[in-house]
From TrEMBL:
Coiled-coil segments on the chain, per record: none
Membrane-spanning ranges: 7-28, 43-61, 73-92, 130-154, 160-184, 191-210, 222-242, 254-274, 294-318, 330-348, 354-374, 430-452
Localization terms from the record: Cell membrane
Organism encoding this protein: Microbacterium lemovicicum
Lineage: Bacteria, Bacillati, Actinomycetota, Actinomycetes, Micrococcales
CC annotations in GO: plasma membrane
Protein name: Multidrug resistance protein 3
Gene Ontology terms for molecular function: transmembrane transporter activity
UniProt keyword terms in alphabetical order: Membrane, Transmembrane, Transmembrane helix, Transport
Length: 467
C-alpha cells in the first residue's frame, strides 16, 4: 500500500477540486444572462442545480460507499463531474450548461467519503490531522479557486472554466486510481432505493423553496408548496427509515447526542460561513461613491478573501494535535468563537479594506477549527459501518446552512438597497444586518458545541486496533 502521507495528499487534492466547483461560476454569474442569452431567473439555475445535486448526492453516495466500497464511489463521482464539465464546456446554450453543472455537483460527495477512507486506512495517531487537512480543503479550494476563476474569466473564453474543471477532475481520478487503496470494509445488505428517492424529493423541495424564495416570493404558493411539501416528504421518509431493517440512514445513530448536536452546529456554522461569503465580497466590490463599498475589482476582492483559505490550511496540523490532546469538541468551540469574534470585529470596524482582511482571517480560523472538528466528532460516535453515510449527512447539514444563508442574506441585501446610477446597491444597514445574522449563527454554533458530549463512544474503536 502507498505511504499514508501520499494517500492523504491525493484525497486532499480531490477535496480542493470539489470545493473549486462552487467558486467556478462566481466571476461570470452576473454576466450569465448575456452569455447564455437567457433571463436572470433561468440562469439562476446554473447555480441552483449544482446546489440541489450536491445536497441529494452527498448522503446517498456516503451510503453507497459504505456498501460497495468508498474508493469505487469516489471514482464514480469524479467521473460524473468530468462528464458534466465536458458537457458544460461544449454547450453554447443554457440547457447544456445547467445539465453539466448538475453533474458537477456530484463531486461534493468526495470529501465525506475521503474522510471515511482515512478512518479505514490510516493509523489512529494520524487520523485527526489528516481529517483536519481534508476538511480544510472545503475552504481552501473556494478561497484560492475564486482568484483563479476570476483570472481565467477575465483573460479567456468563459468555457475554459469548465475545461479547467474537467482537467482537474481527470488528474484527481488518475491519482485516486493509482494511490488510494481499494476499500475492504463493507456493509452488507441491500441499498434502500425507496429511502434514497424519498430523501431526494424532500431535500429538493426544501432547497428549492430556500434558494428560489427571493424570486418566487416567500409567501407565494410555489414557495410554500415546495417547502412544506418537502418537509412533509421528509417526515414520511423518517417514519419509513425507522421501520425498515436496512435504511439509507440509521436515524437512531443520527439521533445520538454527539451526532445530533454536531449536525445542528454544522447547520449554524455553515450559515455563519456563507454569510461572510455573500456580504464581504459585495462590500469590497461595491463602488466607493455609494458610501459603503471599497470599489475593488472581483480579482482584487478575491485576494482579500483568499487568506482565509490559507489560514485553514496552516491550521490543519494544529487542529490534529489539539484534537488528540483535548478532543474535537474544543476545536468546535474555538471555531465558533472565532467566527463570533470576526463578526463582532466587523460590526465595530469595517471602514478600511484591512478591517475585512482581518475579519476574513478570523473566519479562516473559525472554519479551519470548526470544519476539522465535525467529522472527528461524528466518527467517534458512529459504528464503522456508518461512517460514509454519517459523514455524508453531516456534509448535508453544512450545505443546508450555506443554502439558507445564501437565501436569507441575499434577501436582506436586496431588500435594504438604494438606487445608485440605476442599479440597486445594498445600504450600510443591509450589511450590518448581514453581519448580525452571521454572528448570531456563530453564537448558536458555540452554545450547541458546549453541550456536545466529550467522551468517545465506548463501543467504537479504530479499525487498525481490531486487525
Amino acid at each position: 500500500m502507498p505511504r499514508q502521507g501520499v494517500i492523504v495528499a491525493v484525497l486532499a487534492f480531490s477535496g480542493l477540486v470539489s470545493s473549486f466547483m462552487f467558486t467556478l461560476m462566481v466571476p461570470i454569474q452576473s454576466k450569465l444572462p448575456e452569455l447564455l442569452d437567457a433571463s436572470r431567473d433561468d440562469t439562476a439555475w446554473v447555480v441552483t442545480s449544482t446546489l440541489l445535486a450536491a445536497a441529494v448526492i452527498t448522503p446517498i453516495s456516503g451510503r453507497l460507499g459504505d456498501m460497495y466500497g468508498k474508493r469505487r464511489i469516489v471514482l464514480v463521482l469524479l467521473g460524473v463531474m468530468i462528464v458534466g464539465s465536458i458537457i458544460a464546456a461544449l454547450s453554447p446554450g443554457i440547457v447544456g450548461v445547467i445539465v453539466g453543472r448538475t453533474l458537477q455537483g456530484a463531486i461534493v460527495g468526495v470529501v465525506p467519503l475521503g474522510i471515511s477512507i482515512l478512518r479505514d486506512v490510516l493509523h489512529e495517531d494520524r487520523v485527526d490531522s489528516a481529517i483536519a487537512l481534508i476538511s480544510a480543503t472545503l475552504g481552501v479550494g473556494a478561497a484560492l479557486g475564486l482568484p483563479i476563476s476570476a483570472l481565467i474569466a477575465q483573460r479567456s473564453d468563459w468555457h475554459l472554466l469548465f475545461w479547467a474543471a474537467a482537467g482537474l477532475g481527470a488528474v484527481s481520478l488518475v491519482l485516486v486510481v493509482l494511490i488510494v487503496p481499494v476499500s475492504v470494509l463493507r456493509t452488507a445488505g441491500r441499498f434502500d432505493y425507496v429511502g434514497a428517492v424519498g430523501l431526494a424529493v424532500g431535500l429538493i423541495g426544501i432547497l428549492l423553496a430556500v434558494s428560489r424564495g427571493n424570486t418566487w416570493g416567500w409567501t407565494s404558493p410555489l414557495t410554500l408548496g415546495t417547502g412544506l411539501g418537502g418537509l412533509a416528504v421528509l417526515a414520511v421518509w423518517g417514519w419509513y427509515e425507522l421501520r425498515i431493517a436496512e435504511p439509507l440512514l440509521d436515524l437512531r445513530v443520527a439521533a445520538r447526542p454527539a451526532v445530533l448536536l454536531t449536525n445542528i452546529a454544522s447547520v449554524a456554522m455553515g450559515f455563519s460561513l456563507f454569510s461572510s461569503n455573500v456580504s464581504y465580497p459585495q462590500m469590497l466590490e461595491q463602488p466607493v461613491a455609494t458610501g459603503v463599498g471599497f470599489g475593488l475589482s472581483l480579482l482584487a476582492a478575491s485576494f482579500v478573501v483568499a487568506p482565509s483559505g490559507l489560514v485553514m490550511m496552516l491550521l490543519s496540523p494544529v487542529s490534529g494535535r489539539l484534537s488528540r490532546r483535548t478532543g474535537p469538541k474544543l476545536l468546535l468551540v474555538l471555531g465558533a468563537g472565532s467566527l463570533l469574534v470576526a463578526y463582532v470585529f466587523t460590526l465595530l470596524l469595517s471602514t478600511e479594506v484591512w478591517h475585512l482582511l482581518v475579519a476574513n482571517v478570523l473566519i479562516g480560523v473559525g472554519i479551519g477549527f470548526g470544519y476539522a472538528s465535525m467529522p472527528m466528532l461524528i466518527m467517534r460516535s458512529v459504528p464503522q459501518s456508518e461512517t460514509g453515510a454519517s459523514n455524508g449527512l453531516n456534509a448535508l447539514c453544512r450545505s443546508l446552512g450555506t443554502s439558507v444563508a445564501a437565501a436569507v442574506v441575499g434577501a436582506v441585501l436586496a431588500s435594504n438597497s438604494a438606487d445608485f446610477n440605476g442599479t440597486a446597491a445594498p445600504t450600510a444597514t443591509a450589511f450590518t444586518l448581514s453581519f448580525v445574522l452571521g454572528g448570531a449563527a456563530a453564537l448558536v454554533a458555540l452554545v450547541v458545541a458546549l453541550f456536545i458530549p466529550s467522551s468517545r463512544d465506548p463501543h467504537e474503536s479504530h479499525p487498525s486496533l481490531r486487525r
